[in-house]
Amino acid sequence: MNPFTLSCFIIVLPLISQIVLGSLSILKKVKWNFDLICLINLFAQIVFIVIALQIISIEPKNNEFRCGMGQFAMLSLGIITFIVVAIVMGIQLLIKKFQKQK
User: Fold this and answer.
1) Mean pLDDT by 10 residues, the chain (102 residues)
2) Dihedral angle over CA of 45, 47, 48, 50, nearest 10
3) pTM reported for the whole predicted model
């Protein structure tokens, strides 16, 4: 598998996890607390960004030509997905609060 594709997949995993597990937690189909799921996904996002940067930096070390654009792209994608995960958490928190009011 291409290291760039693997890194992109690793970075998107916490977003998918937040959408699925956060929704299930709001519907009370999972025993885990919503706050715990959010906390785990935030830490996982940070750790996976570091892992993706390490994976993407392996390829230039094997070649004579070294370029940092791959690492910059992964860092940018990581920051964007971190922001998206935070937005998804905020939306899910609002949904949870509106369900409590009903």
Assistant:
1) 87 95 91 92 95 83 68 91 95 91 78
2) 120
3) 0.85
Q: How far apart are CA 86 and CA 46, in angstroms?
A: 12
What is the per-residue pLDDT for 40? 95
Q: Which of 4, 33, 37, 14 is nearest to 83 (CA)?
A: 14
Counting Cβ atoms within 10 Å, is residue 4 exposed (0-12), middle (13-18) or buried (19+)?
Answer: middle
> Is the Cβ–Cβ distance between 96 and 34 less than 8 Å?
yes
- Residue position matching structure tokens 């994976």: 55
Q: What is the DSSP string of 24-47?
A: HHHTT-SSS-HHHHHHHHHHHHHH
Residues in the chain: 102
Amino acid found at 81: T
